Every structure is written in C-alpha cells, then in structure tokens.
Automatic annotation (TrEMBL):
SUPFAM superfamilies: TPR-like. One of its GO terms (biological process) is RNA modification. Keywords: Repeat. This is Pentatricopeptide repeat-containing protein. PPR repeats lie at residues 75-105, 106-140, 176-206, 207-241. NCBIfam families: PPR (TIGR00756). The keyword Transport does not apply. Gene3D superfamilies: Tetratricopeptide repeat domain (1.25.40.10). One of its GO terms (molecular function) is RNA binding. PANTHER family: PENTATRICOPEPTIDE REPEAT-CONTAINING PROTEIN. It holds the Pfam family PPR.
Amino acid sequence: MLKEPIFPDNFTYPFVIRSCGGLSDIYLAKQVHGHVLQSGVESNIVIENSILDMYIKCDGITDGHKVFVEMTDRDVISWNSLIYGHIKLGQMKRARDIFEGMPEKSIASWTAMISGYTRIGSHEDALHIFRMMQLTGVKPDWISLLSVLPACTQLGALELGKWIHFYAEKNGFLEKISVCNALIEMYSKSGNIDQARQVFDKMLQRDVISWSTMIGGLANHGKAPEAIKLFQDMQKTTIKPNKITFVGLLSACAHAGFLEIGMKYFDSMEKEYNLNPGIEHYGCLVDLLGRTGYLNRAFELVNNMPMKPDSAIWGSLLSSCRTKGNLELAVIAMEHLLELEPEDIGNYVMLSNIYADLGRWDGVSRVRKLIRGKIMSKRTPGCSSIQVDNVVQEFVSCDDSKPFSGEVYQMLDLLALHNQTKDVFL
C-alpha cells in the first residue's frame, strides 16, 4: 500500500496496529508506532487505545505506560488495557493501584481483577473483589462467574458457590457449557458430588471437559462403578475422551481395585484413541497394581516407563509396600524419594511404619533419627480454610496471629479434655 504510494488514514492504522499486536513483536510494534507518529495522522482515542493494546500484547508495559500518560483523552478501555498488562505480568499490586484510581469501572475491569488474583493463587482477594463488585451495584456476567468459581473451589466457599449457581440459573447462564463445567468442579472439590451430578445431568450440551470433570469427581469420591458407567455413556456420544478423561477413569479403577478393567482402558488409550499415556497415567497404573498386590509388576512398570518416574509414582509404590508389607521394595522406593524430595517428612513416617508393622524396631529407630535431623528443619506448615458467615478464614499451623486464636485454642483444649474423659469411662 505504501509503495503505490497510498497513505494510510485513521481507519487504516487500527487494523495494522492490531495485527502487529497479534504477532507479539515489540520491535515491530515500535516501528509501527513511529510510523503513526511520523505520518501526521490526527491522533484519536481509537488509535491511541490500539497502540496501548499493542504494547500490552507485546509485553511492553513500560512503553504502554508512556502511551497511557501521553494520551489526550482516556476511556475505560484505556484503563482496562493498562490493568490487563500488569495482570499479565503477575503484578497485581500495581494493577490494584490502577484499578482503585479508575474514574469509572466496567464489568471487564472487575472481572480482570478477579481473574488476576485467581491466577496467582490469591483466592481470598478474588472473593473480596467479587463482593466489592456486588456492593457497587455491578451485576456479574457469566465471564465474571467463571473467574470467581475457581477461587470458591480452592477455598471451599460452598455457600458462595451455591449462590453463584442460583444466580447463574436465574440469569440463564447455565446455557454456557463453561459455567456448568466450573460448577461441577466446584461442587466436586467441595465434597458435594451429588449436586455436581445434578448440574451435569441437567446440561443440554456437554464437551469433553464436562465428561472428564464429572468422571474425575466420581473417582475422587470413591464412586468407581459410577465413573466407569459414565465413561461408557461418553463412548456412546460423538465426544472423544482426552488424556484428562483417562486420568479420572484410571484413578477410579485404582481406588476400586479393578485391575483387568484398568489395564484394558490403559491399553485402549493408544490403540483406540491415539493418545500417548503420560506420567500421570502410569502413576494410576502403578497405584492400581500396588493396591491389588502386584508389587513386582508395579516395580517392573516403573523401571520400564518411557519417562523418568516422579515422586508421586515412587510415593505410590511406597504406600503400597506398607499395605502389603514389602520392606525390600519400600527401601528401594525410599532411596529414590530421598533424591526427589528429601525434606518430605511423610515418606520417612511411611517407612518407619513399615518397619514397625514388621517388628523391625532397629529400622524404626534409624528412621526416627533421620526425622529428627537437620533435614527436617524446613517444613511447610499445614493449612486449612473454612467459610463462616460468608467469610473464608485460613488457618496455618502454629500461627496464633488471628484475634480469635485464643478462643480457638481454648475450644480445642476443651475438646481434647472431653475425649480424654470419655476414654476413661469407656
């Protein structure tokens, strides 16, 4: 176009700039920006927003800031682009400062912040922003519900999840497959598998994520026959299972001890669906062989895997060794775990229990000395969360910083005393 020569105008540049952003090439972005400045085209908010968005997509947050500061006029799109740029880089504190300074916020602004906090694992902040959005009178759309549901899932905020379910149903958002999928996952991981199944059964359309999430949820709740039956129902549809589907299916077989069925489905991955099993699928198979007492076959599988076994696989084998009382393989599994995760105290306790079950008190003594060693000094504290009065409280082991910690510990002491007294009378 330039060689003709035909010079671009205000209608041409936004498309060129958008295409440049799609390539994520910061050097090309600067060249196009320079061309716009040299062309003498009258500046307007559409072109300036396009340039700002281009820099954000090219990870040029510094250049994007310069464009934002120099803009003669800004709208909500300008602010949202800058916020998204910082969220994309994980800079939530900076994004929050810009968000707080916005003269006007759109639903996209709120949703971006919720998604950003969820993305970095700050689930409490995500719920806080969601509540602030509601208090300001902004009605959530289906995208904002998708953004907040993972936070509900991680924090176990079941009551809020139920409210979102009701709100989604009332506003017709359950027609969106992705919303239903998120609800199924939320209910499954919050312990309400029956409610998850109700959402699944009412879906008019399902994708592979719907089936995989439901099968995995049933497997995790010990409902192996139902998970297998659901997979068989899936096979009657036009939707093909993926690798995640088979993780749930094989996990169900492992928990139920269905050896032949599990082996058959594992083999079908390549033969029927052209899916190469990953390390998670081999892990399920090792677990299945171990649970059904075929420890030598499990060990042989571990040694012949096409990839290097990880700590989850060796840990699964170690657990099976305790169940079946196989000290020889337990020691081998522990040797590998020492290389992969030397600070995990659970592996040492498991090995100590195996020695104890076999009456090998010399082995118990040696392992306990290791537990007391310096290698155990760096322990990750346990934590849990609970929702009370629509507020999620997180508790960390040995942390008494909360204002109500004293009352909590007093109640725990009373419960412990009650149990001791009960044991005496029994």
